[in-house]
Amino acid sequence: MNTLFSFKRFGLLLQRYFYERRKHDLLFWSITVLVLMLSGGSVQFSVTYLVVSGAIFVSNLFREIHSKTQGINYFMLPATQLEKITMTLFVSVIYYFAMFLITYIIGNILGTLLNNLLATFLPWFSHTSFFAEKFVQMPLKETFMAFVFVQAIFLLGGIYFKRNAFLKTVFSIFALIFALLIIEMILVSLFIERTFTTSLFPEEMMSFSLHFETFYKRILNILGYLFVPFVWIVSYFRLTEKEV
Q1: What is the 3-state secondary structure (H, E, C) of 21-74?
Q2: What radius of gyration, in Å, describes the C-alpha atoms of the chain?
Q3: pTM (two decimals)
Q4: Looking at the predicted structure, is the pLDDT value of residue 229 above 70?
Q5: What's the CA dihedral at 30, 31, 36, 38 to 10 degrees?
Q6: Are the C-beta atoms of residues 111 and 38 closer than 8 Å to each other?
Q7: Higher pLDDT, 187 or 228
């Protein structure tokens, strides 16, 4: 018996999720189709809706572990922590993003048909082209990367915070950003401004500034790619601690 990961147990966890949440998910995606249909296919609104709704969605996936009665049932499930966190990642990332794309397409088709139907009878509406042009304009790669980045943060928040996980995670993000801005201002004042005042040659000052900026961006890119797997690993160990 595989005590670390079993695809059979993983599949059973997925079946459990879809069986228990089928009515809730059907209602939610129906509302999403309606919202995207009324949005007129706005790419900016759709991306914002994806990120915000996805953050709320993943924040509530582990709500049962913070309840005494539901938590006991959850931790008594015959599945490992790795299978549980993997199932959650599959549902919150792959399933959610795929369903959003499907609802985005359906919503835009219905919105285009409704708009063109109203334009036939009412002068306040004008015929619009098919939704495909707007769909092509959506930066899927950048949207998916931003979506996964935000999902990872709120997944950890959903495991860590017992109540109001979404709001507490938002507050923690703003507090962290504020602290990082202060640290960045201190580093800039210590390294860049001091160099400007002590250097005698403007060329050397500009060269140092450019090299520092390039190095800073590379570090941020590396940390950005490593951030999501790191948060997933932390979430796994946090879930393990909750079970213990």
Answers
A1: HHHHHHHHHHHHHHHHHHCCCCHHHHHHHHHHHHHHHHHCCCHHHHCHHHHHHH
A2: 23
A3: 0.80
A4: yes
A5: 120
A6: yes
A7: 228
Give the count of alpha carbons within 13 A of 65, CB side only.
Answer: 24
Residue 20 tokens read as: 């228990």
Compute, in degrees rounded to 10, the torsion defined by CA atoms 105, 109, 110, 112: 130
Q: Flag whether pLDDT at 123 surpasses 90.
A: no
Measured between alpha carbons, how far is 186 from 202 in angstroms, rounded to an integer? Answer: 23
| Ranges of each domain in the chain | 7-243
Using the predicted structure, report yes or no on whether residue 31 has a pLDDT greater than 60. Answer: yes
How crowded is residue 91: how many other Cβ atoms within 10 Å of its Cβ? Answer: 20
Q: Hey, what amino acid is at 123?
A: P
**Does the pLDDT of residue 176 top 50, yes or no?**
yes
Q: How far apart are CA 104 and CA 240, in angstroms?
A: 36
